[in-house]
Amino acid sequence: MSAKSFWNKCRVSGIAQTGEEFLKFVGPGLLVTVGFIDPGNWAANLAAGAEYGYALLWMVSLSTFMLIVLQHNAAHLGIVTGKCMAEAITEYFPCGIGRAVLLTALGASAMTSMAEILGGAIALRMLFSIPLPVGATLTALLSAALLLCNTYSKVEKWIIGFVSLIGIAFLYELWLVPGGWGAQAAVGWVVPQFPQGSMLVIMSVLGAVVMPHNLFLHSEIIQSRQWHLKGASFIKKRLDFEFFDTLFAMMVGWAINSAMVILAAAVFWTAGEHVTELEQARDLLRPLLGDSASVIFALALLFAGVASSVTSGMAGGIMTSGMAGEPYNTKDKHTITGIVGSLGCGLVLIWLTSDPFEGLLFSQMALSVQLPITMVSLVALTSSPKVMGVYANGKGTKLLLYTLTGIVTALNVMLLYSVLR
């Protein structure tokens, strides 16, 4: 049978149509996955592997599971209601509570912007010896220009593609690492461990994976397609396809994050080498890329920094436009205020930071501290029949979501105890 005949037969059977339909709706999850390999993730994973070996891989697994559940829930909100999370909070929450939630989320967006811009600045320092404050300013201005001029969409696929290649490089390097790590990693993925002094890094890994601003971003990307206007049967199909899009994208992120931790453990932890700066991560690429590792790493970090700075700035615009009860629109003053505010505050925080690597870790920790507020807000919205109608969360889903919220809250309490002790 020829390839054409086989394809036609598949088309008749409905398999091809399903595949074609699914490909039309793949994308939002992959865009969110850019956050999996942003500079904050690189720093958190590098610290986890270098300082504690394979012991903190369980947090990568737990964070990814949380992210799948939460991103799926946030996407449901956008598909069913046609509103992003910020708009829904403004419409359905009491005014004071809604503003408080969105202001804390905006603060988390600024902390995210700090990490992303800082990554770009470190890359510029590695490539051209540009001072960190100057590099940070250039990165922030470029990201703002791409957003406000709506030119980012033209380079988005190239940026995601390049950063994805670096992610693949990390995965491929696992084959180059000497044997023996498999058994330790297998235990680390599933057995929770809390080595002495590790709570800051644990919470940094959590914040680096389950970023609050990404929940707002995912709901905005989904709702902008206005699928809720096409009827119940269409919504049902979109919900099914969205789950597989989210699951696939998040598992890719889990694999890349795990690879970073494992490589850091194999290169630094086994040698007893202490890591104090992000530039040391370029050593992870030397077995694959040789002496060009420094340039390739810096370019990847630059692209990752710009790409993720754009998404954090976009999230800031989504929140401020949502406060005004308006959709995201880069021509509107409310959206512009959020974009400039998020990137501008992140830039100021960098100017005030004396230790860039510590700054990256603390920024990711701050995200985990705000996370329970965003999680409770999301669950409240998606569990309400008034908001979701027949698509409101069932008892089992609500129990799972509130259990995850309780786990994050408990980890935050443990962090506070470790700091005050």
Please describe what this structure looks like.
The chain is mainly alpha-helical. Helix content is 78%, strand content 0%. It is built from 19 helices and no strands. The N and C termini lie far apart (72 Å).
Catalogue the unreliable spans: 1-27
Mean pLDDT: 81
Number of strands: 0
Number of contiguous helices: 19
End-to-end separation: 72 Å
Name the overall outline.
globular
Strand content: under 5%
Cα Rg: 21 Å
Largest sheet: none
Q: Helical content, roughly? A: over 70%
Q: What structural class do the secondary elements suggest?
A: mainly alpha
User: What is the element string, with H for helices and E for strands?
Assistant: HHHHHHHHHHHHHHHHHHH
Secondary structure blueprint with pairings:
Layout: H1 3-13, H2 15-25, H3 28-33, H4 39-52, H5 57-81, H6 85-92, H7 95-128, H8 132-148, H9 152-173, H10 181-190, H11 199-209, H12 212-223, H13 232-269, H14 286-289, H15 293-323, H16 333-351, H17 356-382, H18 385-388, H19 395-420
Helix pairs in contact: 4-11, 4-13, 4-17, 5-10, 5-11, 5-12, 5-13, 5-17, 6-7, 6-15, 7-8, 7-15, 7-16, 7-17, 8-15, 8-16, 9-13, 9-15, 11-17, 12-15, 15-16, 17-19
